[in-house]
Amino acid sequence: MMPAVVKLCCGISYPHLRSMSGLHRTAVAVIGQEITHMKHWAQIKHHMGKHAEPKTEVAVSEDQLFYIQHGKEALRKAVSMLEDRDGWKVEIKENNGDVICSKVIPGTGKVFRLEAVLEASVDDLYDLLFVRVEEMHQWNPSVQHIKVLKQAGPETIVTHEVSAETAGNFIGQRDFLSVRHSCKQKSSAYLGGAAIRLESFPPQAGFVRAEDGPTCIIIKALDEDTTKSSFTWLLNMDIKGWLPKSIIYQGLPRTQLDFTRHLRKRLSLR
């Protein structure tokens, strides 16, 4: 996140990662049933039954359905942005193989895509980044706290996040109110999210409320080693406030690298 950019959440430039066409096919398989209003996706509806819809035996309120659909749509839009391979520009290449690319999308603005390989399984990363998201402040100093406000089924949550006040942070503290939605299979996980507005939880005094999304993180096991995972993170954020976009666009990719560094450190302690 820009502190919270670490939320949750390039043509693949390294040989050990799968091609973007592979990402496209897997994305379709994973979220197909989540977008049944689109005829193309409806054709593969049967592939994702138990991963895409809330359990039929569990009563779901109108509020829960609203959050679930909001999260699904955010994930669909974010994956669609990644599927379009045209126009990406390399911003940063690290010696460890991490690459960040950027692209300006009409109506959205500049988005950033990080590609990395992490020494962790899909299950481990899903657990840290979604199931135990409230613990993120313990290993990511950019986050002051994340609180799950609502649980709309096992795959969808509403969170409030506050970025930490850190020395040298020219952007300043922000808070975020977001819906986060996940789809998980044995060899991959998709974590999507977007800002949401709730009358019951207005912007907090002392913070600028930023808005993220649609954004997503895609985690896929490497074919040759299931203890390692490819990590693709689309960062799409409006931090609000008065700072020029040129300055913000310099800071956001560095924030992605910082988050990945903290995540690697946390994984090394297992």
From TrEMBL:
It comes from the Eukaryota. The lineage of its organism: Eukaryota, Metazoa, Chordata, Craniata, Vertebrata. It is found in: Mitochondrion. Pathway: Steroid metabolism; cholesterol metabolism. InterPro entries: StAR, StAR-like, START-like_dom_sf, START_lipid-bd_dom. May interact with TSPO. Pfam families: START. The keyword NADP does not apply. Its main location: mitochondrion. This is START domain-containing protein 1. SUPFAM superfamilies: Bet v1-like.
